[in-house]
């Protein structure tokens, strides 16, 4: 079982990822794909006169401020435009893909945050109209049923709250939750960078291995969006996923390359790259 997350940042070769995912599926591998769409959402939101707003928590984490209008745009782009396009592309390659949001069948269920703290200058403000949340449960029974029937699930936020309200959740953490719930051998998180870098301007400064027992060792390098990726990866490994690889979506056969060890490997113990790469 392989869970693949492809980000939605600018400059990502989604077509190359989908070709690789299709090859794995047709070779008999069980694959679940999750995707983002942040760059396109920003463009659409701006065009609609509701440009994106980002907030920074007191701990230094940056996230999208999601009021109801933003959530509607978010769902329109992720579930509508991007998810449908990915399903169409996979279907054209002979893969019986099925697109689902985290709300469908309560695939991703969690709690909406009652308040969100935002640092503005020297003040910390409490925001009460933010529609973000955390994932508490994955409907893995539904995913297993689809996989057993030969489908390739293509998942995307938003998730659903316990009381039936859409919530924006972090895609990398969602991928980690899915991989953990399914007992995946590997989680591959692909973005527009080759992995965790000591220097964001130097691809040669790649951190090749992160020990899930010692996350503090890489905290100085894991900034911005990479911090959420590392957090999600560590949680997945601690939850039983054999290893997580953070790698470039733009490599040749990016999923295979990541499984063979190209990127930053997050794991526990002295493991070699998963044999899934050679399937």
Give the helix proportion (percent range).
25-40%
Taken in chain order, the helices and strands follow as EHEHEEHEEEEEHEEEHEEHEHE
CATH superfamily: Acetylglutamate kinase-like
Gap between N and C termini? 11 Å
* CATH 2nd-level architecture: 3-Layer(aba) Sandwich
Structural class: alpha/beta
What's the structural domain tally?
Answer: 1
Strands side by side in the biggest sheet: 5-10-2-1-13-15-16-14
CATH topology: Carbamate kinase
Shape: globular
Strand content: 25-35%
Query: What is the count of β-strands?
Result: 16
Kindly state the mean pLDDT as a whole number?
A: 90
The first-level CATH class name = Alpha Beta
* Count of alpha and pi helical runs: 7
Using only CA atoms, what is the Rg? Answer: 18 Å
Main sheet: strands, sense, barrel: 8 strands, mixed
3D architecture notes:
The protein has 279 residues and is of the alpha/beta class. The chain has one domain: Carbamate kinase, CATH 3.40.1160.10. Helices cover 32% and strands 25% of the residues. The protein has seven helices and 16 strands. The chain has an eight-stranded mixed β-sheet, sandwiched between helices. Strands 9-6-11-12 form a four-stranded mixed β-sheet. Strands 3-4 form a two-stranded antiparallel ribbon. Helix 2 crosses helix 3 and helix 5 runs parallel beside helix 6 (225-238). 45% of the residues are buried. Residues 271-279 have low confidence and may be disordered.
């Amino acid at each position: 079982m392989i869970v693949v997350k492809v980000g939605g940042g600018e400059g990502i070769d989604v077509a190359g990822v989908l070709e690789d995912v299709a090859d794995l599926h047709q070779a008999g591998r069980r694959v679940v794909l999750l995707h983002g769409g942040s760059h396109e959402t920003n463009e659409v939101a701006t065009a609609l006169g509701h440009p994106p707003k980002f907030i920074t928590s007191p701990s230094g984490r940056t996230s999208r401020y999601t009021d109801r209008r933003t959530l509607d745009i978010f769902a329109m782009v992720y579930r509508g435009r991007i998810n449908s396009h990915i399903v169409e592309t996979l279907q054209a390659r002979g893969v019986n893909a099925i697109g689902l949001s985290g709300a469908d069948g309560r695939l991703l269920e969690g709690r909406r945050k009652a308040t969100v703290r935002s640092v503005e200058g020297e003040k910390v403000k409490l925001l009460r109209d933010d529609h973000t949340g955390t994932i508490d449960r994955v409907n893995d029974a539904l995913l297993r049923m689809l996989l057993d029937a030969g489908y390739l699930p293509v998942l995307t936020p938003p998730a659903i709250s316990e009381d039936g309200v859409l919530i924006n959740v972090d895609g990398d953490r969602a991928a980690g939750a899915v991989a953990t719930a399914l007992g995946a051998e590997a989680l591959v998180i692909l973005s527009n960078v080759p992995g965790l870098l000591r220097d964001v301007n130097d691809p040669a400064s790649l951190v090749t291995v992160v020990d899930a027992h010692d996350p503090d060792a890489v905290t100085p390098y894991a900034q911005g969006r990479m911090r959420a990726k590392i957090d999600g990866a560590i949680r997945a490994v601690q939850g039983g996923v054999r290893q997580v690889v953070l790698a470039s979506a733009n490599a040749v056969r990016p999923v295979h390359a990541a499984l063979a060890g190209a990127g930053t490997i997050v794991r526990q113990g002295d493991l070699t790259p998963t044999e899934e790469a050679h399937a």
